[in-house]
Amino acid sequence: MTNNRFALLLTLFAFAARLWRIASSPLRGDEAFDVLFARQPLGEIIYQDRFNQIYPPLYHTLDHFWLALAGQSEFSARFIAFGAGVLLVPLVYKLAQRLLGERGARITAVLTTIHPFLIWHSQDGRMYTLLALFAVWAALCAVRLWDGGAGRRGAWLGYLVASTLGILNHYVAYFSVLAVNVVALVLVWRRDSLSFKPSQFLTPSTADGGTAGARVGAKRRASGLLVHAVMRARGFALTWLAANALVGLVGLVWIALAWTRVSSHTALWIMPASPIEVLARSLLAYSLGTTIEPEVAAPFLIVFGLLALAGLRPLRGWAMVIALLCAVPLAAITAVSFYRPMYDEKFLILIVPFYMMLVVRGLLALGRWQALGSVVVVSGMMLSLFNYELDARFAKAPPWRDLARRVLAEARADDLVIYNFPDPSLLYQMGDALPVILLPAGGAYGATGAVPLPAQATEDALAALAARYERIWLIPQTAPNWDREGVVERWLTRFADRDLEASFGPLRLQRYLTPSAYRRLWTPLGVDFADHIRLLAYRVEPTAIQASGQPTLHLRLYWQATGAVAGNYTVFAHLLDRDGVLRAQQDNPPVAGTSPTSTWAVGAVIVDRYDIILPSDLPAGRYRFEVGLYDADGARLRAGGDDKVIFGAVERQE
C-alpha cells in the first residue's frame, strides 16, 4: 500500500472512530458553558476572556461563528474538537515519517487514531484537541526547517501560523513553543541540524583524494562553500529568532490585555501535585486515557513505561528531539505548579503524539517481540475505549438530557427551575422553555470566579420566588465551594411541599408546591398545642392503599408558631386501625430534624413530611392518623383536653 493511500485510509478510520456516538453523551458542564458563552456578541466574548475567563480568545471566537452557522446541537458543539482530532492523525503520520521512518510512522499513526485520551477529547466540545493539533503542526514545520528539505517557505509560514494559533488557543501552548525552541538550541549546541553541517557542502573529490591540483581546487571550492554555509546558518538563525519573536509578540500583546485576570487567577479545582504524582498521572492519561481504573491499568502501564524508556536509547538525533518535545512541557508545567497549581492531564494533551513516538521507538527495538508488545499496547487502549463507550462509571456527563426531558414533559408554563450549583449543563438542556435560576446566586467576581451570596440572601430570594410561582423544580447538588450547607434544599423542604422526587444517575430531581398551590390541596385542622404550636392542616398520599406489597403513606403536616416556641419537640405520627391499635409510625423532630420548633418564626408555615412504611401484612380496612408532640423527657404537649389529635381516613383495599 502506498504511503498516501495508507494515510488517507487511516484518516478516514479516525474520522469514523471519532464520529461514532459523538453525541450519545449530553454536554458536560464545561462544554455547555462554551456553547452558552459563544452565543454572546463577539465583543463581549473578547471582553470576558480578558477580564473574567482564563482563556485566550481563539477557541471561543471560532465557536461563536461556527455555532451561529451550524446550530447549537451536541454534535455541532463538539465539531471543532472532532475536526482537530481527525486532522491530527495525518499530521502525526507526516511528522513520524521524518522522525521514525515509514514503519514507525504507520504504527504511531495507528496508535494516535485509537488513543482513548485523544478520542475522548476529540468528542469533547472544548479547545484541548486543538492544543495537540497546533503543537504537532508546529513541530512538523520546525523539523522540516531543521532538516533543510524543500518547501522551506511553506514551513516557515506553517510554523508561524501553528505557533501563533496555539498560544491564542490556550496558555499552555506557550510550553509547546518553549519545547520547540529548547530543541533548536540543543541542535545548535550539538550541531545535529543536518541543514548546516559543512560536510554536506564538500565535493566528493575532496573526500576521496584525487590529483594534487584537483585537491587544491576542491579545497578552495570547499572553503568558499563553507563560508557560504556559515552565512546561510546565520541567516537561518536570525530568521528563526525573528519568527519566534513575532509569535512571542502576539502572545505578549494578549497577555498584556488580559494581565489582570491572568495574574490573579487561581483554579481551586486543581489540587497541588508532587512531581511523582504528575509523572504517575501523566503515564496513565497519556498511555491509556482516564477511562480505566489505575489498578487495572497497572500491568499495561509497566509495559508502556518500559517501551518509552527503550525509545530514549540512544538519546541522540531525532530520539532526543522527541524526548525534549515530551519532557519540556511536562517539566515546565510541574515547575510552575510549585508557584501556582496548574497541572491537569488535559492541559498537556499536546505531548501525547510525541509520547506515542517514544513508545513506538521502544516497540521497534523489540525485534521479534514487537508483535507481542503491540498486542499489549493495543489491548490496554481498547479496554479503556470499551469503558468510555459502554461503562456508566466513566460516563462523560450525568444524564442531564434525560432529566431535562422529564421536567419539560411534566412542567407547566408558569413553573420555575432552580439549580444550586453553577453547572451550565442544565441551562443548555432547558433552553428557553422555562425560567431557570441559580441559587445561591453569584455575587462579586473573585480570583476563582463568582462567589455565592450568603445564606440569608438566598433564603430571602427563595421566599420571593415561592410567592410568585406555584411549583418549583430543584436539582440539588452538593459542592464545597457553592451551596455547601444545602441552603436551597433545606429552605424548600421546610417551607414548600415536595410532591415529586426522582433520580437520574447521580442527579436528583425534586418538585415543590409553594403555599399558593399546597393550600388548595390540604385539609384544614386548626388544632392548637401548648407552647404556641398550631397544626394548621394535613395532606396524605395516597388515600387508597393497594391490597398487596409494602406501600408507603406520605403524610404532610402543616405547622405554624403562633408565638415564640420555648422548647424543642419531637413529632409522633401514628397510623391506627379502627380499634385504635397502632399499626405503623414515624417519630422525629420536625422536617427530619432540620427545623427545631424553637427556631420557628412566628406566623411562618412549616411543611413537615412523614413517609410511613406500612407492614406488608396490614389487613384491609379503614385507618386514621394520630399526631402529637413530646419533649425530651417524653412528656406530650397538650392540645385542649387531649395530648394528641386524630384525623383523616385511608383505606386498605381487599
Please tag this protein with its features:
five-stranded mixed beta sheet, 654 residues, single chain, 23 helices, 16 strands, alpha+beta
Describe the structure in your own words.
The structure is a single chain. This protein is an alpha+beta fold and about 650 residues long. The chain contains 23 helices and 16 strands. It has helices at about 5-20, 30-40, 40-50, 60-70, 75, 80-115, 115-120, 130-145, 150-170, 175-190, 205-210, 210-255, 260-265, 275-290, 295-310, 320-340, 350-365, 370-390, 400-410, 425-430, 455-470, 485-495, 515-520; strands at about 415-420, 435-440, 440-445, 450, 470-475, 495-505, 505-515, 525-530, 535-540, 545, 550-560, 570-575, 580-590, 605-615, 620-630, 645-650. The strands form 4 sheets. A 5-stranded mixed beta sheet has the order 2-1-5-7-6, with helices on both faces. The protein has a 5-stranded mixed beta sheet with strand order 10-16-15-12-13, with no helix packed on it. Helix 20 (about 425-430) links the parallel strand 1 (about 415-420) and strand 2 (about 435-440). The termini are far apart.
